[in-house]
Protein 1
Amino acid sequence: MTLRQDGNVEANEQSEPEATERGFGTGLRAQLRKRLHPEGEEPQQPAPAEEPDPQYVSYDFEQPATVELNGANPEVEDLRAQLEAAQKREISLRAAFAEQVEAYERKLGEEHEVAHEQTKLDERSARLSSTESQIRERERRMAQRSRKRSQQPSLLPPSSRRSSRHATPS
């Protein structure tokens, strides 16, 4: 029972079909139902599908090969021989691989040493080139000085030039 604003008590709210839902989107579900099923019939729920009875399948397995504990089984002996051959190949391959790794490391070591020596030689070459250019520049300046001295008239007479060179300061 609900109490209405006018004071009347209403026994069942569902007596008013439009007023069952209140708030935002009121009546949208009912409108959708009417559009999907215009004849007024309710959608029928599909009946649950019955699961089929499980079928039993019989599997026929081959019997395992008989193993002779005291005797020799040819399959086992063949597999053992293959395993031994594979182990021997593995040992020889590991040895060959170790040799290759060692040779590679030696080669890398030699290449490193060669590169180091090359760097040293390049540095020496650069210093030598620098020294050569300094010597050439010094020779050029000395040649210019000697040309200037030979072109300048001498202020001292030739006899005094000789004595001034050998003269001792007083």
Protein 2
Amino acid sequence: MSDEMRAVRHNRTMSDTIHGSPVHDALVERVGAAIVQGEHPAGTRLLTADLAESSGASRSAAREAVRVLESLGLVQVRRKAGIEVLSVEHWNVYAPEVIAWRLDGPDRARQLHELGELRGAVEPLAARLAAVNATDAQREALVAAALGMARNEQRADDADYLAADVRFHRTLLRASGNPMLGMLGDVVQSVLEGRTRHALMPQAANPEAVRWHRDVAFAVAGGDAEAAFEAMSRIVGESDAAIDEAAVAEGG
């Protein structure tokens, strides 16, 4: 992994707080994935002692792992009744961990489609707002990220392209000036990383999509809100269609 990509991942503060010992992290990963992927359906009762024994963790490490899962909305600790697995309505579906577990499981296509719908609603709006609200530094960073994508477009499935792509979209969301949109950076980053991790990204990027990123960047830099909105709408539309096509090919 490149230094640039490490820096991007370091900024994901939402998930940084859950990490503990390797055994603790492995337990969170195993049980969280099992819940999200349906191995432990809603209503299943789990016991801390059983989790500790099955993973070789101490009971204190298992309790801490359960607290992490509870913070993600996956379980609820009930007094004298153990740990109850909760239904999807309770999950923090915006948490990068939950997104990653869904992408790793049989629900991948649905998760990608839902994320695509979210991006289609959010990112064109963010682009329009960024054209008005972005700082000079954010405008420069957006242009630099778009140019970084163009430099690496023949290696779109590599870390350098991914890092530039992530930087572009996180910068755009922050540049909107709306903190609630800015907080969706982790969600969009999870989509982009998942697309690469699951080989849904072609080796060479769609040249039109790369050009549209430049169009957004220069529209934001020039304060053209409608041009930024339109170009960003094309980007998320193309991305959703390309992911759907790749997912169908993978399934076939």
